[in-house]
């Protein structure tokens, strides 16, 4: 974690909800306000408002490395090296690279993100800059930065956990996002903020949730981090190092 | 599982890959051929070819139940009841409803589906027809139908499992899709077909993978099913029933 003063810290909030007056949009507003009050310089990318294109395709690359056969990560590296990324991707990439903290704010759709946010990841988390080869987890391109998920769902908290009908939420259903995406590229990931049962509760209860979010974000530097694998425990082919201490690397 | 003769069985393959000549597209072709030879009536939806729109939004609904505030599942139920679903959604919904078997064929992007397929789920798995209230898992709208994932990734098999760097793949990273999506709406879900390390292996090895897929699909009726929660073990609020035998429902 950076020891720099909070004054210079930058946060990027990425919001994905189809209803501008939604509770999720209100959580993004609350996050912006709370972090700004805590001294962060905050920018927000509202993917629905900007009609972000979520479809990774050949159309993303003007000047292909392999015009005959699309290997998406290969073209990402080529375009990034050439400075020929599509402007809509480049803007998002630069904002993440310039930030110390990335916050994803979305409603749970099918125990994952809405497609518009999934496609933001598909297109923005560039092979090369974000990850590649052994540059994953604690050697990923985003090491030194932090990330956090802020989300809402209809389900109740008792539906999750070891004995819940759906099993674990953050560590289970959302593991593809917390570990497989944010952790994979090197972010330190704070415990998520999860608003349960939102469509079925009162406005008073929703307001209390926003106040809790504001309080918790004011103390984000002390918020616990999720645990991820360390490359130190795996060999050059990502095989677990045995207890005998295989130090091949 | 249905005991009807295989002659009448219908399969729907949904393909999502940005390169038409990809190995993943070849897996979809192999699946179509193998199932057709086994007597299935097969249709294929190639989401990239048809430029499927993956963004769930207010634009999906011509005649809103609540014009002032978008609640996406509410509008899905309203549009489905009215017969006013967008034609691109309605075609996909009807194809799934008319099929006995749904097969999703895609490359693993960020331990999940490409956004175009995530958005197909967001828009096509309708509240009401597919799930709703207590109509989930073994009471979901798709009970009596089967589903299966066919996917490819760059990672090697030893990177997954209890001691692998990424943890479990099908039961872990992909649990949001296998259980949280397909199982949730009531499909019986076959064990997935996973092609590992595809970009780094030889053409001969890839050909052998397609042959294995063909053989395995010829015997799909005997393919093991993934285990999901049963509503019988949970009360009306989805709380686990105690050992004392709370039969409230």
UniProtKB/TrEMBL annotation, chains A, B:
<dbReference type="GO" id="GO:0003955">
    <property type="term" value="F:NAD(P)H dehydrogenase (quinone) activity"/>
</dbReference>
<feature type="domain" description="Flavodoxin-like fold">
    <location>
        <begin position="13"/>
        <end position="215"/>
    </location>
</feature>
<protein>
    <submittedName>
        <fullName>NAD(P)H dehydrogenase</fullName>
    </submittedName>
</protein>
<dbReference type="InterPro" id="IPR051545">
    <property type="entry name" value="NAD(P)H_dehydrogenase_qn"/>
</dbReference>
<dbReference type="InterPro" id="IPR003680">
    <property type="entry name" value="Flavodoxin_fold"/>
</dbReference>
<dbReference type="GO" id="GO:0005829">
    <property type="term" value="C:cytosol"/>
</dbReference>
<keyword id="KW-0560">Oxidoreductase</keyword>
<dbReference type="Pfam" id="PF02525">
    <property type="entry name" value="Flavodoxin_2"/>
</dbReference>
<comment type="similarity">
    <text>Belongs to the NAD(P)H dehydrogenase (quinone) family.</text>
</comment>
<dbReference type="InterPro" id="IPR029039">
    <property type="entry name" value="Flavoprotein-like_sf"/>
</dbReference>
